[in-house]
Amino acid sequence: MHTTVVRVQNVFGFFTSVAFAIAALIAVSVVFAPQSPSASMELRNIQVVKGRPHYYSTKREEYANIRFDLDTDLSTLFNWNTKQVFLYIKAIYPSHLPSEPPTEAILWDAIIPATSAPWHHNTYIHPSTKAPKKVAKSKPQPPPSYRATAPGDAPGVLHLRNQKPKYQISDPTGKIAERGNATLELGWNIQPWVGALVWANYVDLGRWSGVKGGRSETFEFPELKGAVKKEELGTMKGGEGNRGKPA
Amino acid sequence: MAEELLEKARDVFEGQIDFEGQRLAEYLTQGILTLVGAVAFLYGYFTQDIYMTLWIGLAGTALTFVAVVPPWPFFNKHPLQWLPPQNGYSGINIEVDRKKTS
């Protein structure tokens, strides 16, 4: 501590130790925040059609387009150390060989930011819960309100009706029609400001209880359809559809 | 003239403090930073606002730098008492080449 430079080094060195200790404390403090998420999910509609992975592909595959209803209350996942929650829905169905684990495919996802997180154009925009107004086509559309939850709801509360998927799903074999014993399952990953990513969704851990509900009833993929209206096969891009484009 | 200026500049840059001041500086560094860390964590935890933890921690660190790094007068209150300059060889006569050295 004799000269200025040595004192700067000493202060900064001890600051890093303190910062690391505080960060560790913050990471551990999450364990004491109770979590009691709940969700209910219902299948609305499935269509299975032939398609190709990209425009120039000669491969023809079957694609399933799954629409669903989702009501969640994940607000307890948002404690002081939560930056965002990555929410996703998987379709799970048995593989062809019983010795293999079941096949999982993600059909929808969303990034739900905490209120403390700065706005980012990749975050999820909750659709309006009001009845859509009829707008004349010539009029310019109002800009979407960039909110991950409906007005008045806490972060993590979602109410989706007849939601279009973000991704049409297929199977490694290319055949997905008439596969049985499938379920939709909600999953998420809590991404903290400091600390570990948490994937525990269905297990009780101390003060964290697993999600109530969160799985749909089992269903069967329908048979292949020849001609389906284009609107019924729509997918919906999230906020990340803006990526790379000027705001 | 230029050398004097340079000497002064070096003194200001080095900012030397005495031994008691060094003890105090070390004590202040660890005390303030630990206290600030504890306050930052507790305040952030009880208001559930992690930004407050961040800002309190950074502000406290800045305060510590200001308090400890410059050679404040209170770090130089115990200047070292050097012995008066002596001629250590005064009592001894050493002859070098038949000439007395003193």
Describe what you observe in this structure.
The complex is a heterodimer of chains A (247) and B (102). By secondary structure, chain A is mainly beta. Chain A has two domains: 1-32; 36-241, no CATH class. Helices cover 11% and strands 28% of the residues of chain A. In chain A, strands 5-2-1-7 form a four-stranded mixed beta sheet, with no helix packed on it. A three-stranded antiparallel beta sheet of chain A has the order 4-3-6, with no helix packed on it. With 102 residues, chain B is mainly alpha-helical. Chain B has a domain at 19-75. Chain B is built from three helices and two strands. Chain B has helices spanning 2-14, 19-47, 50-68; strands spanning 94-96, 99-101. A two-stranded antiparallel sheet of chain B has the order 1-2. In chain B, a hairpin with a 2-residue loop joins strand 1 and strand 2. In chain B, helix 2 (19-47) runs antiparallel to helix 3 (50-68). The two termini of chain B are 34 Å apart. The model of chain B has no long low-confidence stretch (mean pLDDT 88). The A-B interface holds A 1-5, 7-8, 10-11, 14-15, 18-19, 21-22, 25-26, 29, 79-81, 116, 193-194 and B 13-17, 21-23, 25-26, 29-30, 33-34, 36-37, 40-41, 44-45, 48-51, 53, 57, 61, 64-65, 68-71.
